[in-house]
Write a structure and sequence with these properties.
This protein is mainly beta and 91 residues long. Helix content is 9%, strand content 43%. The relative contact order is 0.27.
Length: 91
């Protein structure tokens, strides 16, 4: 799982049929304090209605993502936004 902040929306005029009707968002990795974790990004399919600027939880394992979406092992997906984070508490 990755903690990240949505930085943008991906729009394509041509795309794989798998992505029809699915919003794709660009997510930049963050640390628990909200600061960015270097320059790492991931492109993720949004399952929860997240928007730009929101902190999100990303499932970044292809097999898990395909199982959640109910697709076969050839489904072209690796990362899913599975939650919108309200707060992060660290011990």
């Amino acid at each position: 799982m990755i903690l990240g902040r949505v930085c943008g929306t991906v729009v394509a005029t041509q795309g794989h049929v798998f992505y029809r009707g699915r919003k794709q968002l660009l997510v930049r990795y963050t640390l628990p304090d909200g600061s960015f974790d270097g320059e790492q990004y991931v492109l993720a399919v949004d399952l929860v209605g997240a928007g730009v600027g929101q902190t999100v939880l990303v499932q970044d394992e292809g097999n898990s993502a395909r199982q959640i979406l109910g697709t076969d092992e050839n489904g072209p997906v690796r990362s899913l936004i599975v939650g919108i984070v309200d707060q992060v508490h660290t011990a």
